[in-house]
Amino acid sequence: MTITEEKIYTRLLSEEVGVSPRLFQELLLSYGQPSEIFDVSLPELSGHPRVGAKLAKAIGKAKERYSQMETEINEWADRKIYLLSFLEENYPPLLRALGDPPPLLFYRGLLPPPQEKNVAVVGPAASNQETVAQAVRLGRALAQNDVSVVTGLGRGVEASAQVGAVVAGQSSRLVLNCGHEADLSDEEITLGVQVEKKGILLSEYSPLVKKSPAQEAASRRLIVALAQAVLVIASSGADEVTEATFELAIQQGKPIFLFNPNTDAQFPPEAIPLAREEEIDLVVCSFI
After folding, report:
1. Which of 53, 119, 180, 265 could form a disulfide with 237 if both were Cys (CB 3.0 to 4.6 A apart)?
2. Domain spans in the chain, listed from the N-terminal domain onward
3. Tens digits of per-residue pLDDT, 24-58?
């Protein structure tokens, strides 16, 4: 089987059948390549402790949509939306280290080299003008140190950090919480176009999948996983996004830096405070 064919079988498992990323990994360990999972007999597949008869039948039936899946992948490629499989060597190594990485990534732009240095920049969408300006400067400072900025699609701090990286001419990573062709705002589309010129837009969702709260939480996991360190920029106490990011960074063992000079709010003790923008070098040095 070619890698393109394996991508189609992976899509069938993930999207048509609804196999979770963790179960996908278990099936690979048990049966080999995605295409080989479809060759397993119904009794044997039903006997897998995590599959059962109902899911085994769904896997067998999903193959009927192979041609449609293939057509969609080709049409997306014509629109410069590509698929990256967990099975490919250039799948992000930091993401591969997760116990349940996405089987497929949908991307636009340029695949970064595996040795690229990455820092996730996180902060509230509702930020004051001073905090937004700080995010632009810190994003630019990271880029000038040859560090790629990783953020979500949010406004405020995260979009501003991406702007700083773009202005500095450095590649960056923008993680979407929806498909590439979902209903994005004009501001989100404009930012994506700028990032795509030298960086990459990543999503674990098919192009037409719309935003949802659950997908926002899932995208946070990828943002943290794709980075060697996490920088939180805030002008007040931690909001839900910031708190979720702290928890994920602690779970994944990533160093956390907090640029938050204008508040006495309490943050987790794991966070390393930065009092001045010039201390961004501490973030860069944390993983060199």
Report:
1. 265
2. 3-80, 117-285
3. 999 999 999 999 999 999 999 999 999 999 999 99
By DSSP bridging, strand 117-122 and strand 147-151 are parallel
CATH topology of domain 117-285: Rossmann fold (3.40.50)
Two structure tokens written together for 6:
């394996």
Return the amino acid letter for 108: R
Q: What is the pTM of this model?
A: 0.91
List, for residues 186-227, the tens digit of each pLDDT value.
888 898 999 999 999 999 999 999 988 888 888 889 999 999
Dihedrals phi, psi of 179, to nearest 5 degrees: -80, 165
